[in-house]
Fold this protein.
Amino acid sequence: MKSENVILPEGWTLECLEETDSTNEAVKRRAAETGLDRLIVQADGQTAGRGRRGRAWKSLPGNLFFSLALKVRDAARLGEYSFLTALALARAVEDIAPNLAPKCKWPNDVLLNGKKMSGILLETDGKHGIERLIVGVGVNIVPVGAEGMLYPVASLADEGCLTGMEEVLSAFMNRFDLLAKLREKEGFAPVLDGWKKRAYGLGGEIAVNLPDRRLTGTFSGLDKDGCLLLNNADGEYRITAGDVFFDPQGK
Ligand code: BTN
């Protein structure tokens, strides 16, 4: 990808690489070297793309891999960026393909037709405590194949949307910047509201894999911080992290 083909909101810097280990690592290195805030590193290929919980992220040519580095001002509320990033991506897809109805899967996947189109990996970095938030995003623009995947996968091309990396990154950055400004001005609530409007599976039966056990029940809502609320015969659970499955009898 060529950086001059990407339209960025004011104040952002984009560096494009042919290949790197992981754009999350690359942006950490470059942000530490340059001291830049609002830095984006994109790579056409990743040799060690990472997913959540130490899983690998398949990085096939034609798909979009990038990471943002943001200086941290409110370390306690970084989890809000999970929802903000997923919502920005869902809105970007709506901008590009108004006929598609992307959905947000808790906490931060974006789905097309119930299948995973993107993944988001939030990390923090800094020499002296938490200095930077790293937001890593992988978007399937072209098909990736389902082998070895934890969830069913989709791509924009699978859903009939023929677009490219530059268009998706431009649309995403526009939405991300707008939402970050909205959050600064009005707090997290409007961001969470936008996410909830596109929530996948709300009110339905789910299973959540936690590090030590599996819970099943009804996905009854989110609290004001975005924690997932699950209800079953034992009561209400407030879940901060876990893998959600919408077919409780399945995996
Ligand atoms: C997940 O759903 O498990 C999160 C996947 C995140 C993948 C992206 S691709 C760009 C960035 N670099 C990485 O190594 N991971 C993220």
Summary: The two ends are 37 Å apart (CA to CA). Residues 22-24, 46, 49-52, 55, 57, 65, 67, 109, 119-121, 136-138 surround biotin (CB under 6 Å).
